[in-house]
Specification:
The chain is built from two helices and six strands; from the N terminus they run αββββββα. By secondary structure, the protein is of the alpha+beta class.
């Protein structure tokens, strides 16, 4: 899923994935799932709302690889409602703010492989 408001401004191609993540925020740890990712950011689904511009540390858990620890910032928030008006998992567009060269290479190679 991508935000129609931001899709045309993307600098990097995205690919759909389903990677578990842990977000380290000032309020504590939160778990979520990356729905799509690029070398510059990701779309994360989770059950807890962060605010636009919130900064946090993202731990991406990828099978057969050490965790990626990445600094990130919330760029936009998507709160869809189910038909009975109950909130469903929150979606957030995030931008990577601090990423190691090795993790950036891994993400770039992953996106290139699946796009």
């Amino acid at each position: 899923m991508s935000s129609p408001n931001f899709a045309h401004r993307r600098k990097h191609p995205r690919v759909d994935v389903e990677w578990p993540v842990t977000m380290m925020t000032p309020e504590g740890e939160m778990d979520g799932t990356i729905a799509n990712i690029s070398a510059g950011g990701a779309y994360i689904r989770c059950g807890t709302l962060l605010s636009k511009n919130d900064l946090f540390i993202l731990a991406i858990l990828i099978q057969d690889r050490e965790e990626c620890w990445i600094g990130a910032e919330v760029i936009w928030i998507d709160i869809p409602l189910s038909p009975d008006a109950e909130p469903i998992p929150v979606g957030m567009g995030i931008r990577f703010t601090n990423i190691s060269a090795e993790d950036l290479r891994f993400l770039t190679d992953t996106v290139a492989q699946y796009s």
